[in-house]
């Protein structure tokens, strides 16, 4: 029978096999392959490239980012060490167009290919950033950013509308943090694409669906962080105008604190993260209970103080003499009234007496000065028929009819002419006329 003896293993170790000599029987090692690639890449010279910064992440003083070709769908990853970053002066930002001196680098341990930047110069804003700034200026001029048009969020919404990606971290963050703050919070979630071509139309459709729901009091549009390129949908003019036209308050919770799509400016409230949105939309039940207890304690203290103060005031009023013996006030006032009444009566009586004496005196004076008193003393008044009082004897010639008024009545007489001037005037005046 033939013998099947095993021949000694003559396969060389993988590290000894060059990648170009590898075969299924003689494979090379990964480290040898990576070293070969590194040696090949290191022979490349540094080149200057122009592109738009689409990612700029600072970690440990170093920058890890991406450059995009503005004219073609191409991009590269780069590393920028801290020493190079310090030489740049002003730090570039996402959206800046730059020219950079890059040298290819291949890392043996991880098998990662990247470019190391040794110099970078800004050449202006990227095309996308320019378009965003133009749209920002346009919307601002139309008043879509004005604080006066922003609606106030309800204190405790009945139902929260949530627009986010399906099974996303943002959805879990919003639900978990909202339920921790208010366990009975209610959500109506509509899933939509949060990047790519479907992002804008699906987000607009979800927004209109939730805005038409009468039970939804506030709408949250949430997405986790990402490359600025993936967040461009939330700066789309169609979505921004749909948010501005919504009747329900809208909260923007896109990315992280440093992400700032235009949706943040149009929305009624900007939350830095989805977690922050949950904290801003619903109150903290523990804080509200503490506030209620604090208000109840304050009200109890104020009410106790007020009742104690009023009781002290009441006791002070009750201790006054007038309230201890109310009849004393009436007695005192009655005595004063009696005195005042007697004094008034005396004053009126004296004034009446004085007035009566004055009237009597004036009456006597008037009577003494009146013509009637003169006639009572024996004087008479003679007047002609025409009523003319005779003051001169010549006014009554012989035969003139004269009426003579005395103290008690009047009688008719006829003049006999002028009496001799030697006769006494008093006797002539006082003698009755001869009627014959």
Automatic annotation (TrEMBL):
Residues of the Exonuclease VII large subunit C-terminal domain: 144-351
Superkingdom of this protein's organism: Bacteria
Entry's Gene Ontology molecular function annotations: exodeoxyribonuclease VII activity
Compartment(s) of residence: Cytoplasm
Principal localisation: cytoplasm
Entry EC no(s): 3.1.11.6
Compositional bias (Low complexity): 420-436
Stretches assigned to the OB-fold nucleic acid binding domain: 29-121
Reaction(s) catalysed (UniProt annotation): Exonucleolytic cleavage in either 5'- to 3'- or 3'- to 5'-direction to yield nucleoside 5'-phosphates
Any one Pfam family match given in the protein's UniProt record, by short name: Exonuc_VII_L
Region (Disordered): 1-29, 416-436
Keyword rRNA processing: no
InterPro entries named in the record: Exonuc_VII_L, Exonuc_VII_lsu_C, OB-fold_nuc-bd_dom
Position of the signal peptide: none
Family, as annotated: Belongs to the XseA family.
The protein's assembly and partners: Heterooligomer composed of large and small subunits.
The name this protein goes by in its record: Exodeoxyribonuclease 7 large subunit
Organism per entry: Microbacterium paludicola
Taxonomy of the source species: Bacteria, Bacillati, Actinomycetota, Actinomycetes, Micrococcales
């Amino acid at each position: 029978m033939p013998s099947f003896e095993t021949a000694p293993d003559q396969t060389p170790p993988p590290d000894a096999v060059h990648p170009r000599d590898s075969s299924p029987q003689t494979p090379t090692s990964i480290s040898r392959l990576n070293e070969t690639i590194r040696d090949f890449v290191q022979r490349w010279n540094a080149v200057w490239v122009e592109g738009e910064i689409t990612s700029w992440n600072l970690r440990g003083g170093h920058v890890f980012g991406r450059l995009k070709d503005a004219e073609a769908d191409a991009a590269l990853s780069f590393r920028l060490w801290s020493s190079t970053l310090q030489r740049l002066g002003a730090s570039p930002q996402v959206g800046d167009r730059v020219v950079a001196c890059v040298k290819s680098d291949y890392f043996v341990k991880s098998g990662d290919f990247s470019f190391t930047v040794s110099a970078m110069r800004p050449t202006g804003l990227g095309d996308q950033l320019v378009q965003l700034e133009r749209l920002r200026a346009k919307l601002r001029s139309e008043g879509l950013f004005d604080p006066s048009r922003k609606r106030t969020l309800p204190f405790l919404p009945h139902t929260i509308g949530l627009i986010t990606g399906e099974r996303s971290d943002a959805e879990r963050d919003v639900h978990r943090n909202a339920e921790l703050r208010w366990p009975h919070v209610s959500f109506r979630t509509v899933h939509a694409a949060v990047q790519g071509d479907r992002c804008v139309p699906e987000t607009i459709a979800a927004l209109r669906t939730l805005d038409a729901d009468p039970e939804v009091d506030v709408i949250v549009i949430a997405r986790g962080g990402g490359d600025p390129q993936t967040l461009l949908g939330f700066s789309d003019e169609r979505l921004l105008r749909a948010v501005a036209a919504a009747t329900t308050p809208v909260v923007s919770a896109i990315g992280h604190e440093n992400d700032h799509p235009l949706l943040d400016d149009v929305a009624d409230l900007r939350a830095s993260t989805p977690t922050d949105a949950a904290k801003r939309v619903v109150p903290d039940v523990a804080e509200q209970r503490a506030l209620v207890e604090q208000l109840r304690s304050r009200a109890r203290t104020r009410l106790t103080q007020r009742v104690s103060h009023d009781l002290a005031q009441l006791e002070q009023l009750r201790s006054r003499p007038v309230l201890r013996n109310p009849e004393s006030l009436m007695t005192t006032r009655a005595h004063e009234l009696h005195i005042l009444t007697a004094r008034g009566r005396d004053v009126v009586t004296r004034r009446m007496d004085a007035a009566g004496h004055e009237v009597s005196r004036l009456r006597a004076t008037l009577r003494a000065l009146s013509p009637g008193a003169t006639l009572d003393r024996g004087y008479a008044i003679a007047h002609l028929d025409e009523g003319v009082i005779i003051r001169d004897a010549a006014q009554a010639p012989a035969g003139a009819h004269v009426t003579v008024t005395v103290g008690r009545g009047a009688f008719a007489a006829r003049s006999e002419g002028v009496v001799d001037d030697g006769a006494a005037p008093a006797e002539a005046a006082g003698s009755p006329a001869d009627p014959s």
